[in-house]
Design a protein that fits this description.
Layout: H1 2-36, H2 39-52, H3 57-72, H4 76-90, H5 97-112, H6 122-138, H7 143-160, H8 190-210
Length: 227
């Protein structure tokens, strides 16, 4: 009986190999499309992966990458919701938990930033700050989270300012880094919001490079960050 059981286990393992190769090819193809800038093509494949693998690490990673794709397509609300779902599903900080929280903060910020800056932006900006704060508690050396925290905090300070008296000359923006550089209205400088966008893109690409890398290639030590 034990010999038969061993044989069944071997046959089951052999039968799963083609499925593993199909999974790997689909993920690799989706990631390649993403890196090349074909976000709509990548989105379609990531959604296929979510349907085929409703649970497990493949589902989690496909959901994370789909969130990044939605971000690149400027669907920031959808992106924030997906990153939040990944963060909740991952349970603890780590390979996906911290980056998901960081990128959730980016997506929330991008739903609010942009000329003109409206009063309704206050809540998503506060939620964004909470995400960056959580990241920095887990990883105090995360420079990108620090930079983005300062950008979003500056935007909140802008919202807290009392409106200028009627008939007063327009604010030239001098001494206010968040409005310098030719930004119109009361919105953030496009260069500033572009920094958040670029930081998120660099984060996403770094994670795509990490996926499916043999464990032996990773260095141990203080400087081996997991975000």
């Amino acid at each position: 009986m034990s010999r038969l059981l061993s044989l069944l286990l071997v046959l089951h393992a052999i039968g799963s190999v083609p499925a593993m190769f199909r999974q790997y090819r689909l993920i690799r193809q989706a990631n390649t499309l993403y890196v090349s800038g074909d976000y709509r093509g990548a989105e379609s494949l990531y959604r296929q992966l979510l349907q085929r693998y409703p649970v497990g690490i493949v589902h989690l990673e496909a959901q994370f990458n789909l969130a990044g794709t939605e971000y690149r397509l400027r669907r920031y609300r959808e992106s924030a919701a997906l990153f939040g779902a990944v963060r909740e599903a991952s349970g603890t900080p780590g390979r996906i938990g911290i980056p998901a929280r960081y990128n959730e903060g980016n997506a929330l910020a991008m739903t609010a930033l942009g000329p003109p800056l409206q009063d309704s932006a206050a809540e998503p900006l506060r939620q964004s700050l909470a995400c960056y704060r959580a990241v920095l508690l887990s990883d105090p050396d995360n420079i990108d989270a620090r930079i983005n925290y300062e950008i979003v905090e500056r935007a909140l300070q802008q919202l807290r300012r009392p409106p200028a008296p009627s008939g007063s000359p327009p604010d030239s923006g001098k001494g206010n880094p968040s409005r310098s550089g030719g930004s119109s209205g009361t919105g953030m400088n496009p260069e500033v919001t572009g920094l958040i966008l670029e930081n998120a893109r660099r984060e996403e690409l770094e994670l795509l490079r990490k996926y499916y890398r043999p464990a032996g290639t990773r260095r141990e030590g203080k400087e081996n960050r997991d975000w």
